[in-house]
Amino acid sequence: MKKPYEAFQLQDGVVLKNAVVMAPMTTWAGSSDGQLTATELAYYRERVKDVGMVISATAHVVENGRGFSGQFYAGDDHCLPQLKELAITLKSGGARAILQLFHAGRSTSTELNEDIVGASAIPETFAYHTNPRALTEGEIQTLIDEFARASRRAMEAGFDGIELHGANGYLLQQFLSPATNQRDDQWGGSLENRMRFPLAVVDAVIDVVKQSGREDFVIGYRLTPEEVPQMEPGLTLEDADVFVEQLAQRNISYLHLSLQQFDQSSRRNPQQTEPVAHRILKIVEGRLPVIGVGMVKSGDDLNHAFELGYDLVAVGRALVTEPRWLSLVQQGLPVRSTMKATDSLERTVPQVMIDNIRINFPATIE
User: Which of 207, 216, 353, 360 has its CA 20 to 30 A from that of 269?
Assistant: First the structure.
């Protein structure tokens, strides 16, 4: 079994002081014009002291890619000063700093974006109730370039890497899923075509990193391997098998699975009782590290996740509740559990979103 508290080396030679990651969590703590705030930086500063790597809240790479109020922006060079400040903050405890990048696609609101786009013009009826228009060929090509530009910006700002957010129903996943991609051009239809956009984004980021000469710059990809049964025809584990194989053949640093629970089995097929982690790890075959996440709240959970075979384990809720969670767990000390979850849409500052649940920070951070 891999040990959570020992140093871990990624494929590109980057060394993490341990194998525990702070999960990316949306905070709603930024300003209305995409600026970071002192509150958000203070939140990170308290939570980066023990873990080996920190993945930031997600940043949108173009204006109409915004998914949340209070979300910070990474889509032009005017953002560089705040990105530099964030990178310094994330690395202040000795962790590696990763900037997560995304486009929300149809998973946004009309209050945030007047021009809502998606892989196809298929309404979102689960949470956001939007009616996107389909991206044009030219817009798709521009978006590929914008992800690459934002990655270059992350390098200039001092981050150790970026993570492409291809999970949780956002734009990269919207292209991959047959439920949200019903295009009849090269970007849709067959699985090969549906993979084309997210893989083009990955390849563009790889190219910009190569051009920079930063061989040690981390490139991660976050993936939801399976959509819920209500999404029909939705993304299946069989689809994910093929996509993961494509990622494993590329020069990326890690794969980050987005799961509700780190040891869950198939949600679409109850007869498949094997943990999703086992299935993905068999495909990867050690070619890149796999990060597990989802309901890791105790030292036993952490050990169980590593026993399943994950190379790295991301922790979210527990670090919101207790900034020194990892240190306490390592020492065998009790960990407080005072976090209150609410599905209220009323904004309280600051908050965190994990798995679409808004969670208040501890009062000491407010």
Answer: 353
SS3 54: strand
In the block, tokens 């292209």 appear at: 175
Tally of CA atoms within 13 A in the half-sphere of 165 that contains its CB: 27
Cβ(282)–Cβ(271) below 8 Å: no
Q: Is residue 260 classed as helix, strand or coil in its secondary structure?
A: coil
Domains and CATH numbers, the chain: 8-360 (3.20.20.70)
Characterize the bridge pairing of strands 312-315 and 161-166.
Answer: unpaired
Residues 279/292, Cβ–Cβ less than 8 Å: no
Q: What is the mean pLDDT of each run of 10 residues along the chain (366 residues)?
A: 89 93 88 85 94 97 94 95 97 98 96 96 92 98 98 98 97 98 97 98 98 95 93 94 98 95 94 95 97 95 97 95 94 72 40 53 41
Asked if 280 and 240 count as a contact pair (C-beta separation under 8 A), the reply is: yes
- Characterise 51 by phi-psi region: left (phi > 0), alpha (psi -120 to 50), beta (else): beta
113 vs 323: CA distance, rounded Å? 34
What are the beta bridge partners of residue 313? 20, 292
The answer to whether the CB of 220 falls within 8 A of the CB of 254 is: yes
For residue 125, how far is the Cα from the chain centroid? 23
